[in-house]
Structures are given as C-alpha cells and as structure tokens.
Amino acid sequence: MRRSRIRRTLTRLAVTVIVLALVVVGTVAAALGWGVYRDRQDLSAHVPPRPAEVAYSPAIGAVTATNQPSPAGVTAQIAAALRNPDLGDLTGVIADAATGTVLWQRDAARPRTPASTTKVLTAAAALLTLPADKRITTTVVTGSAPGEAVLVGAGDPTLRSGTASIFTDAPSIEDLAAQVRRSGTAITRVVVDTSLFTGTDFGRGWDRADIGGGDVTPLQSLIMDSGRIRPGEDYSPRVPDPALAAGRALASALDLPPTAVSAGTAPRGGTRLAAVQSAPLSVRLHDALVHSDNVLAESIGREVAAAAGQPLSFDGSTRAVIDTLRNAGFDMTGVELSDVDGLSTLNRIPARVLDGIVTAAAGTGKPQLRPLLDLLPVAGATGTLADRYVTVNRPGAGYVRAKTGSLSGVSTLAGYVATRDGAVLTFTLMSSGTPVDVARPAMDAVTAALRGCGCR
Questions:
Q1: Confidence band (pLDDT; 50, 70, 90) for 452?
Q2: CB–CB of 156/170 below 8 Å?
C-alpha cells in the first residue's frame, strides 16, 4: 500500500509539473518575443485548469533596461549554492537568452568532459542540416540465393520487435515479416546487411562493460530497440550482436530458427519484399535527448555525416558535427569528439560552446535551432530529469529544462530556466571530481536558485 501511495503521489507531481512546463513554454515564447501560432478555434477551452498545488502567474513584464538580469544580480543569487563543495571542480556559464549577454562564468573556455551534453551539439548539427520530416527506411530484399531474404540496415535503431519500446512511433519487425508473407515469396534464410556504416562499431573511449550496463550496443546500421534486451526499459542490458539479433527477430516472425540467420550483403537489383519507415527526425531527436539514448544519438550523427559528404563512421560523424557548427558561426575552439553521443571519456567541450548553442536556439539569429529548446527534459517531469527537482530543489521543477550528462566522476547540465520575473536564462554547468549522485543535486540547486531571479 505504501508503495502504491508513493507511486500515486509521484504521478500527481509529474502531471502537475508537466502542466506547469506547458505554461512555461508559453512564458518563454513571450519573454523572447517568439511568434505564437493560433488556430481560428479558441484553444483555451480545451486546456484543463492548473492543479491547485501550482501557484504560478504567467504574467510577464516587458524586458527593459531596469529589469534585465545583471551580472552582479546573478552572481549574488547563486553565491550560496556555489559554495557547496559537492560541486567539485566546476566550470560554467550563465547568459541572458534574450540578449546573449554573459551574466556569470567560471573558466568557461576550459575544455571539459561533457558526457551526454554532447548530444546538444549533435542535435544542433542535425537541425541545421537535415529536414525535420526526414525518415529512415529499413527494407527486406531478395538475396542472391533462392529462399534468401536480406534485412538491410539503414541506420534506424528504433526498429522494434513486439509492442514494448521507449521510442515514439517505432517501426516493427513484425510489420516487415507480414509484408514478406504477403509477397508470396518462400523464405528459408535471413541475411543481415550492415554495410552502410564503415569503420569500427565501438567508439574510442567506450567501455565494453557498458553493453551489459545498459548504455550502448555496438553501433551497426541494423539495430533493433537500440540493442535493448528489455525494450521497454531505458537502462536494459544491451545485446553484443545487434544486427544478428534483429535478424533472429525477423526469422522468428517468419517461423524460422535462429540458425537460419547469417551476415552478408544485399545483391544489386534484389527485389524489395518489405519496407518500414522510422518516425520523423524531429521525433527521433526528441527521443534521443529525453531518454539520452546513446545509440540513437550516434545514429543521427551518421545522418549528419551523410549530409556533409563524410564517411558514415565515428570519424565522419564527429567531423561533420564540428564542421557543421563551425560553419554556422560557432567558435569550436577546444572541442574534441570521439563520438557524438557523449559516452566517450575522450570528448572535450568548453562550457561556453554548449551555452552558446542553447542561447542561439533561444535567440533570433538561428531559427533552425529553436526546436532544440523543446527537446530538453523537463525538471521533475520527463526523461533524465524526471526524478530530479522532486524532493529537493523544488523551485526549479517545471521551470528548468536541460540536457543532463553523467560519467564516472563527471556531471554536466546544459539548458535554460524561466525566472520568476519573466526572464529566460541559459546555463551550462560542468562538474568533475565528486560522485555523480552528490554533484547532481548541487548543480540542480544552482539552477533552482536562478528560478528566483530578479537578479537585477
């Protein structure tokens, strides 16, 4: 009973925070002067009332010279939180999203291990180069021998088997199998083709233990459920052979034994027997950032590489992401990437680069980046921030949106917060030298304090 009551309490809290976050989205749009689309129908009639426990007024005053946050005001507001030794070796930057003015910084140009905040760079590069409605098509074609079906990987790790999936609108192996059956072609063998991606399938700075730990699977162009053994769980252990696992799932759906699966390549001119499409890029980016899915982020990096004419490899995707952002006007000095998802311990990104991208997304100069703001988890409600800002640092719940990053001894946070006075502040905090479970609430306290600005 006690566990059920706790679950109901947390559910009510999450619903409350999500409703609050929707209000904050409107607040941010108004504060930054974004246009708001309105249908001819009055949408307000369909919006449920805010839960009683949320005491919030969405009214925003105009940003003027007298109510803009100031460096002195921000420094004073976060001073107590910054004295916490749990922050370890901290670098960071806080900026006014409306003007781009840096309001606080600490060693912001020093390259640090970014962990999963690397995904901010990958998402930004994808938004700058790829259509939001871009989809990936996974196909089954006839093989070179009679009875052979080739499952051709196209780089979509959201392909699922069964009904459980953490991904939105994921295509299914069962759909492929049904199409193959309808084609009337008798199949006795399944071949998996992973030739699209080149180079090694395991990144420099990755640890093989992270396969069983639920963080990654070898990056192949054919992956099912991002390699998860339990597809509905974010941190399920992964398979060590994702392409063959996908082939075995297709074989099973066609009533073939696992021994009927092998690796190979599709012949030129093979007849297409089946095809399924991924969700649009906009949806896949959301899933990659909210769930901090390393495999999906890395696969999207391959799409950026393809658009840039680079090899579909770790080297190609890292080069493409850096070059895309540099060509868009970002100073990439100090950025070194061995992957584009952040699992590599060899990555280095200065805090100023991460915050510069978030600030650009909030500003008017790069409207292509605007969707990035809505891809970030909501404090106390969604994704990797769902269980943060809940029991402590509650002022930030619903008002902070940020990408998290965690490796052993490394904690990072990059995003933005709507302040009580109607300003929007961007921030990047990068900590090392203290345990993750210690550093996280200490960083959250800094951003929760920003919610209380004022700061004039």
A1: very high
A2: no
